């Protein structure tokens, strides 16, 4: 692959990441309103709906990863975009909640064709500072997509709850077109091999140098994704029914979180001080628990805005911990990205399903208090284990 093709591939994957996440997140937000106000679903049902596609995504990552890795990444991404768009279009043509759950389950099963493949593709054959830069740029792209979706989705649902779903389906078709056209125009990109074949060649010449800090990093990303799932799926209901603010205002609050995360990705991508620092991972988790407990007693729009802004920065740091420490030194980056995605899914499942039930029966305050307590429990487990490994001199 020529240098020009490498640059084109880099920007293509970042554009695809931005647009795909914009489509997914707009649909995910619109689904909250569609289920609640078009189909009359309860908060528990909405939480379970969000949990449905994350559960099947988790299962799909575990079961289908060995199969998916045998195909060229461009082919699996193209297949995912077309199939998921079809699921979204079908959702707006049904008024059956059980059928919506079936379609969301299929949506989740199809996601392993895209995100792990895209993450592995952009990190292939890179290490150190270059790896950090590429992953941070990729992270900024999809995160900025979430930020825009908060505004776009909130605006579209004021037109009709289904409008956001139509928008998301259209965006995914654009992503398909981009990957298809760019692959057709550039032979080097078109020739990118399947991850399984690529790893087989690397194993003949290289040795794995993974870091044990990936385990702590996976705990950190699990925590922040439980909170993110609550923020994206449960907070819009609390904003409308508890804080009595409109969709546009709640959308701007979500946008604040997204912007803070997006530009934090740029900062962490340009620095390396946070890499290979166990104490910083634990500090981030402690701050997460502290923020959840303190801001559980906040009720004003301004206070929630401050919480979302601070959480956005913390989320970016924890995400960087996970994706960098998963990939660095690893020969089989694809497998590590699958585990990274599994931890994300597990956090989303707990956040949306359990968070929805707690919100319905105990209120928003107890949702945040529960998240804070989970963070404390994680630290009580992780720190002693880290000290035990440190005494043995086996942190790497």
Summarize the structure in words:
- The protein has 396 residues and is mainly alpha-helical.
- 83% of the residues lie in helices and 0% in strands.
- It has helices at residues 3-38, 43-68, 73-91, 97-110, 115-123, 128-159, 163-185, 187-190, 195-203, 213-233, 235-241, 247-269, 278-295, 301-327, 333-362, 364-392.
- It is globular and about 60 Å long.
Topology readout:
Blueprint: H1 3-38, H2 43-68, H3 73-91, H4 97-110, H5 115-123, H6 128-159, H7 163-185, H8 187-190, H9 195-203, H10 213-233, H11 235-241, H12 247-269, H13 278-295, H14 301-327, H15 333-362, H16 364-392
Helix pairs in contact: 1-2, 1-6, 1-7, 2-4, 2-15, 3-4, 3-5, 3-7, 5-15, 6-12, 6-14, 10-13, 10-14, 10-15, 10-16, 12-14, 13-14, 13-16, 14-15, 15-16
Features:
mainly alpha; globular; 83% helix; 396 residues
Short recap of the structure:
With 396 residues, this protein is mainly alpha-helical. 83% of the residues lie in helices and 0% in strands.
Largest sheet: none
Separate helix tally: 16
Q: Please, what is the oligomeric state? A: single chain
Q: What overall geometry do the principal axes of the alpha carbons give?
A: globular
Regions with pLDDT < 50 over 5+ consecutive residues? none
Give helix % range. over 70%
Terminal CA distance reads 33 Å
- Secondary-structure content class: mainly alpha
Strand % is under 5%
């Amino acid at each position: 692959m020529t240098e020009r093709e490498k640059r084109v591939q880099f920007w293509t994957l970042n554009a695809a990441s931005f647009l795909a996440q914009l489509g997914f997140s707009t649909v995910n937000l619109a689904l909250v309103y569609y289920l609640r106000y078009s189909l009359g679903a309860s908060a528990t049902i909405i939480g379970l709906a969000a949990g449905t596609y994350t559960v099947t995504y988790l299962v799909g990552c575990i079961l289908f990863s060995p199969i998916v890795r045998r195909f060229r990444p461009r082919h699996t991404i193209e297949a995912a975009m077309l199939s998921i768009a079809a699921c979204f279009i079908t959702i707006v043509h049904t008024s059956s909640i059980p059928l919506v759950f079936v379609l969301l389950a299929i949506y989740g099963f199809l996601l392993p064709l895209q995100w792990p493949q895209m993450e592995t593709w952009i990190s292939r054959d890179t290490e150190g500072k270059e790896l950090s830069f590429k992953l941070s740029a990729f992270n900024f792209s999809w995160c900025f997509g979430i930020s825009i979706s908060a505004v776009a989705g909130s605006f579209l649902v004021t037109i009709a709850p289904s409008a956001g779903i139509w928008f998301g389906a259209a965006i995914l078709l654009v992503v398909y077109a981009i990957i298809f056209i760019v692959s057709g125009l550039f032979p080097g990109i078109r020739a990118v091999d399947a991850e399984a074949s690529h790893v087989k060649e690397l194993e003949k010449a290289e040795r794995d140098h993974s870091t044990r800090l990936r385990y702590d990093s996976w705990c950190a990303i699990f925590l922040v994704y439980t909170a993110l799932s609550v923020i994206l799926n449960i907070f819009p209901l609390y904003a409308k029914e508890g804080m009595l603010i409109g969709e546009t205002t709640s959308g701007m609050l979500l946008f604040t979180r997204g912007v803070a995360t997006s530009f934090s990705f740029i900062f962490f991508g340009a620095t390396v001080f946070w890499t290979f620092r166990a104490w910083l991972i634990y500090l981030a988790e402690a701050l997460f628990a502290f923020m959840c407990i303190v801001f559980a007693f906040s009720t004003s729009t301004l206070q929630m805005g401050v919480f979302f802004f601070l959480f956005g920065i913390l989320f970016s740091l924890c995400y960087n911990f996970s994706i960098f420490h998963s990939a660095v030194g690893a020969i089989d980056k694809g497998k590590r990205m699958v585990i990274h995605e599994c931890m994300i899914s597990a956090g989303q499942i707990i956040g949306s399903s359990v968070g929805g039930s707690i919100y319905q029966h105990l209120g928003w305050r107890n949702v945040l208090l529960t998240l804070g307590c989970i963070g404390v429990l994680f630290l009580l487990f992780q720190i002693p284990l880290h000290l035990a490994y440190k005494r043995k001199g086996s942190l790497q």
